[in-house]
Specification:
Number of helices of chain B: 16
Largest sheet of chain B: 9 strands, mixed
Strand order of the largest sheet of chain A: 2-1-3-4
Helix content of chain B: 25-40%
Oligomer: heterodimer
Number of strands of chain B: 17
Structural class of chain B: alpha/beta
Number of strands of chain A: 4
Number of helices of chain A: 5
Radius of gyration of chain B: 27 Å
Radius of gyration of chain A: 20 Å
Shape of chain B: elongated
Distance between the termini of chain A: 51 Å
Helix content of chain A: 40-55%
Order of helices and strands of chain A: HHHEHEEEH
């Protein structure tokens, strides 16, 4: 059977769950040796990417970017966070605030697979069509 | 005063302004190459759903073809150079649709149904899905009306009915497209109310060739009832793949409205290549000749959409003329055998005949029409009934004649007649012949009136008789056209006219 990037990432994730450090180290070494033996070291960046996805899914972690024209006050931020929690169903959310004047007003929140649009720019764009 | 009114109205609008929150599930492009994108996210996307790719400059659409465990494989319909890894993809919630309606007639459109003839946007509010279910058994009727091609050898020996699927197959440069274009041109001979709307679907064709075809159609006034769907060789494989389904949907609209339509798919070999390319890029397992497993279904679902509707459903029809290009005359290759088995017959064009000067180069022995004879008019049936058999006998005996052996009188007669018949069946490109003329010409040939005429003069002689009848006995033409039956009286009158020229 031919293994895919996703399979290797899952193996790596299982290795990361080993509690005893010495055992984990041996397993990682073996894992790297297997990649070397099959001449697939170049897959490593993709394996890490998949590993990150598996980890994020497992721990319910999401990165969210909130883009607004001006710095949002705490009350607004709290409201937005509530909205994000409701729609993402994730426990661990890492919020990053970005100021972008092009947004004009309101905000845009973007996670990996969710986008909340409440900006003036989007409303104006919608008028265009 | 005016200024104040504007300010007031703006204030009013601002006071009722409500912030609107749009929550979208989005996907992200993981990788993109050769017009195929892998997307993560969009868990609830439908198969064949239209997806919208956001780029810095524009929006590009694609179709979700592979729904896998964690990713979606999609083909992109348009310029994919601006799509990057991480680009946002959104669902549109609907399957790809194309505009249909009377406004399409006379236009040249791309595989998405957008006008590309520089005559502006097509004004129609009707849309049909590109992938539609074929007409059900209950709503169908057996083929009973003829679809005249204007080609003597086809209309006499391989008749096509409205709603039939007849394959045109042959090597390159054997006149496949010419037969299709002749069929479109011949519809000018049909009365306007009964004239089918013709749809020419060019798949992977050179733009220069298509431009030439369009010019020919326009010059002869055939664009008035024709639609050209073009996915040229410079377009992406995804558009080649879509074009025949678009053509079929456009035709189905006319069929559903009780009219007749004719769709020509030129050609399905290239369509299969495009689908193979897409499938390989989507990493679907390759099968025979590297085609994917569902290559049969690709063509069967397309051609099954051709139908003759029952009277309760309006009696419309959609006739399909798919074209297949063979390589080195190999009819037993994968795609040709598939399409042969799907269609209701095939017209086989042979390079050998083409180079011998027998044009259209139809091999009558290998060509068949399984359902068309039911739609053939009685007059043609009565004059051309024996034609096929006589030509088959001629071909068999001609092989012996090449050895130069002495032959008995009856064998010689068959060969001589066969040669003359072959001669009158010849026809130059883009010159379809009306049904009455065909009936008269074949009558002359099969009844043995060419016996004393030199072989190379046979065609000319038959034409002379036709011009005699056309100029001096129009009543006879009207009599045949009335019911398309050759009565003994008509037969006698025909013989009289022939004798006049013979004298």
């Amino acid at each position: 059977m031919k293994y895919k990037v996703k399979d290797y990432a899952e193996v790596l994730y299982c290795i990361s769950q080993i509690k005893i450090e010495s055992e984990r180290e041996v397993a990682v070494k073996d894992f790297l040796n297997i990649l070397k033996k099959h001449y697939i070291e170049s897959w490593l960046p993709n394996i890490f990417q998949n590993f990150e996805n598996i980890y994020n899914k497992d721990v319910g972690y999401s990165k969210v970017e909130i883009i607004s024209a001006y710095k949002l006050d705490n009350n607004h931020l709290l409201e937005i966070k509530k909205l994000i929690y409701k729609n993402l169903n994730n426990k661990n959310i890492d919020i990053k605030e970005i100021i972008d004047k092009n947004v004009l007003g309101g905000f845009i929140a973007e996670a990996e697979h969710l986008r909340i649009k409440a900006s003036l720019k989007d409303r104006l764009n919608a008028l265009q069509f | 005063m005016y200024k104040e009114m504007i300010i007031e109205s703006l204030k009013k609008k601002i006071s009722i302004f409500e912030s609107k929150v749009e929550i979208d599930n989005i996907g992200r492009v993981i990788s993109i190459s050769d017009g195929v994108a892998r997307i993560s996210g969009l868990r609830d996307a439908m198969s064949s759903e239209m997806l919208e790719f956001e780029t810095e400059t524009d929006k590009v659409f694609g179709i979700a073809l592979n729904l896998e465990e964690n990713t979606i494989g999609a083909v992109i319909l348009g310029d994919f150079n601006n799509i990057k890894e991480g680009s946002v993809v959104k669902k549109t919630g609907h399957i790809l649709e194309v505009p249909v309606g009377n406004a399409m007639i006379g236009r040249v459109v791309n595989a998405l149904g957008e006008a590309i003839d520089g005559k502006g946007k097509i004004k129609t509010n009707k849309q049909y899905g590109v992938e539609r279910d074929a007409t059900s058994v209950i709503n169908r009727k057996s083929v009973n009306e003829p679809m005249q091609t204007g080609i003597k050898s086809i209309d006499s020996m391989i008749p096509i009915g409205r709603g039939q699927r007849e394959l045109i197959i042959g090597d390159r440069q054997t006149g496949k497209t010419t037969i299709a274009i002749d069929t479109i041109l011949n519809q000018l001979n049909e009365p306007k109310e009964n004239r089918p709307i013709c749809i020419y679907v060019a798949i992977g064709q050179k733009q220069s060739k298509v431009a030439q075809i369009i010019k020919e159609l326009r010059d002869r006034g055939a664009m008035e009832y024709t639609i050209v769907v073009l996915a040229s060789s410079s377009d992406q494989a995804s558009l080649w793949y879509l074009a025949p389904y678009t053509g079929s949907s456009i035709g189905e609209y006319f069929m559903d409205n009780g009219k007749h339509a004719l769709v020509i798919y030129d050609d399905l070999s290239k369509h299969a290549w495009a689908y193979r390319q897409i499938s390989l890029l989507l990493r679907r397992p390759p099968g025979r000749e590297a085609y994917p497993g569902d290559i049969f279904y690709l063509h069967s679902r397309l051609l099954e959409r051709a139908a003759k509707l029952s009277d309760e459903k309006g009696g419309g029809s959609l006739t399909a003329l798919p074209i297949i290009e063979t390589q080195g005359g190999d009819v037993s290759a994968y795609i040709p055998t598939n399409v042969i088995s799907i269609t209701d017959g095939q017209i086989y064009l042979e390079p050998g005949l083409f180079y011998q000067g027998i044009r259209p180069a139809i091999n009558v022995g290998l060509s068949v029409s399984r359902v068309g004879s039911a739609a053939q008019n009685k007059a043609m049936k009565s004059v051309a009934g024996k034609l096929r058999l006589e030509l088959a006998q001629y071909r068999e005996l001609e092989a012996f004649a090449q050895f130069g052996q002495d032959m008995d009188k009856s064998t010689l007669e068959i060969i001589e007649k066969g040669r003359r018949l072959t001669e009158i069946l010849k026809q130059p490109a883009y010159s379809p012949v009306s049904t009455v003329k065909q009936i008269i010409l074949i009558f002359i040939g099969t009844k043995g009136f060419l016996r004393e005429i030199q072989i190379d003069k046979a065609g000319e002689f038959a034409e002379k008789i036709w011009s005699q009848i056309e100029n001096f006995n129009k009543d006879l033409i009207k009599k045949i056209e009335k019911e398309y039956i050759i009565t003994p009286e008509i037969e006698k009158e025909l013989e009289k006219e022939i004798m006049k020229v013979k004298m």
